[in-house]
Design goal:
By secondary structure, the protein is an all-alpha fold. The protein is 86% helix and 0% strand. The mean pLDDT is 92. This is MotA/TolQ/ExbB proton channel domain-containing protein.
Length: 129
């Protein structure tokens, strides 16, 4: 799991453990995290749909204005620069989107593992040794 490490999980578990004193508080925190995670996942899904639409429009533009054998050379020449610019812009936006999605995944996995650690610590604190 790239980006998720034990040190970050441990530090977050300690921080959560300082704030959460009971299993009920931990459950409420976990429920709140799940609600935010659902909203973030839906936002990522909408962005994926938008990216697909832009990719389709870019593909259509390239096919209709540059790669079609029936297009006159003047149209091809006038369409090359906008196609290259749109392709570069799409690549930059796509790279940013992939980076954002990866960061979101790392944050939520770290948070989930930290919540599990705190839950285990609370459970072991309640059981007599």
């Amino acid at each position: 799991m790239a980006g998720v490490n034990g040190r970050a999980i441990g530090a977050l578990a300690v921080a959560i453990g300082e704030q959460v004193r009971s299993k009920d508080e931990l459950e409420r925190l976990s429920s709140g995290v799940q609600l935010v995670k659902v909203q973030t996942t839906e936002r990522l899904a909408r962005f994926n749909v938008f990216t697909g639409i832009v990719w389709g429009a870019l593909f259509w533009f390239a096919g209709a204005r540059v790669f079609s054998p029936t297009v006159p050379p003047e149209v091809v020449e006038s369409s090359i620069f906008p196609l290259i610019a749109a392709s570069v812009l799409f690549s930059v936006l796509f790279t940013a989107a992939v980076g954002y999605a990866t960061a979101v995944r790392v944050v939520y996995q770290t948070l989930d593992f930290a919540l599990i650690e705190v839950g285990c610590a609370l459970a072991s604190a309640k059981t007599p040794s």
